[in-house]
Give the backbone structure.
Amino acid sequence: MNITLKVWRQKGPSSVGAMETHQMTEVSGDMSFLEMMDVLNDRLVREGKEPFAFDHDCREGICGTCSMFINGEAHGPGRNVTTCQLHMRSFKDGETIHVEPWRSAAFPIIKDLTVDRSSFDRIIQAGGYVSVNTSGATQDANSIPIPKHDADEAFDSATCIGCGACVATCKNSSAMLFVSAKVSQLSLLPQGKAESNERVLRMVDQMDLEGFGNCTNTGACEVECPKGISLTNIARMNREFLSSNLTSK
Amino acid sequence: MTMSKTGILKSSLSKKYVMAFTGLFLCIFLVGHLIGNVQLFSTGPEGQAAFNSYAEFMTSNPLIKLMSYLTYASVLFHVVDGFVLTIKNRKARPVNYVVEKGNLNSSWASRNMALLGTILLVFIVTHMQHFWWTMHFGDIIMVDGVKDLHTVVMDFFNPTVNRLAAVMTGLYVFAMISMGFHLNHGFQSAFQSLGLNHPKYTPMIQFVGKAFSVIVPAGFASLPIYLFLIQS
Ligand code: HEM
Ligand code: SF4
Ligand code: FES
């Protein structure tokens, strides 16, 4: 198939960017979106031009680095997929495809399609952990009884790969889905419960400091999230934040 | 234990609680207001007497007074907080997408709460000027010892008395449609903001919210349409 690509080109964090047009011919429907981008970059390098910078690592939907806003949607038209899992057969022959970076004040653009998502790391550092020694003398996790339903729910929350699609797609650039998934995966389990009050306060504080917007409950994040993280996580965090604030000394 | 560093009142989540509480309180207010309005369907002299004494009661009863102050406060906090949140949300994305397809993942109303709210604010201000101001401070005729608000309303939507009656009826209906959209998203959203999400109850809340967002604005809009038509 033939594709017209319009890709965001931006030299550096403070440069002004613009869309750049490239024609792609003989694109196979079995290519992943990233493979199609590889072909473009390969051609640009051979022509002595600058390839497009984009993030990728695992190419199997588990690392969360591939971050492209394709035709107006985070990770493109597919549901429950990352960009590396998106195939070119999702597009029509002759289609024009717009490729942009995640856009959020809290995710500054480094170059072209790559953005700095270290704000997520700082939110995790603020409280997204359990303070236990990992010296080797730890208790066997299976010795703590946990209802199957809780374990499943915690696992579902833990499948968040920190890709940032929720922020990218949210009209407010809100990080609520990510933060609430990280709060939930720990607070749903006994090991994480002990610190849940402090954790939610710290993580929400850090989230606000990073300059993410406020949730308006549009629900766009849940639809675009490659892991189908549920809005119930956000409600849980709202609940935990309120009760932690009311009971903290 | 650590307190929230930014403090509970400054946090983004607390601003959302304020939006949700005030929004839900305004929903309760709407129900009360609608019950009052329904009496205006009785356009004859008995309706006039009944409605005017009801209006008199509403402006003098201390409990109702308290409720009205709570309503003013709710509107004030809801509006100020809504603007603060909207400005912050705009700042969180300094450069917009070239192509963005929000309609594929969210409802139009959920993405336009500030626009719908602004329409409602303009409506509330003009609506209060037309009726609340007239009732409290305007020249209003006394009938049987009480202010005749009934006739004020009848005349307002009467094209033979008010030459703008058709425009006013149209604008009123437009504002109510906007309110319908605001509530269509807002009602259930408020519960989510307060953390009240549960597999058993959320579908119920969503159903009630959708029904509320149709029935209440339709109830309000039907009165001016009725008054305009029977007096034309
Ligand atoms: C009849 C009057 C009104 C009612 C019953 C009402 C009700 C609501 C409700 C229930 C919400 C959802 C709150 C949440 O998601 O937590 C909401 C949100 C909102 N309202 Fe109103 N509202 C009214 C008037 C206004 C006015 C006059 C404005 C502003 C000028 C406004 C601006 C907003 C905004 C911007 C939001 C979204 C806030 C957010 O989710 O971050 N509303 N409203
Ligand atoms: S919640 Fe979903 S969209 Fe957001 S970071 Fe996690 S996996 Fe990505
Ligand atoms: S490259 Fe790892 S999720 Fe796409």
User: Anything to note?
Assistant: Chain A touches chain B through 54 residues (CB under 8 Å).
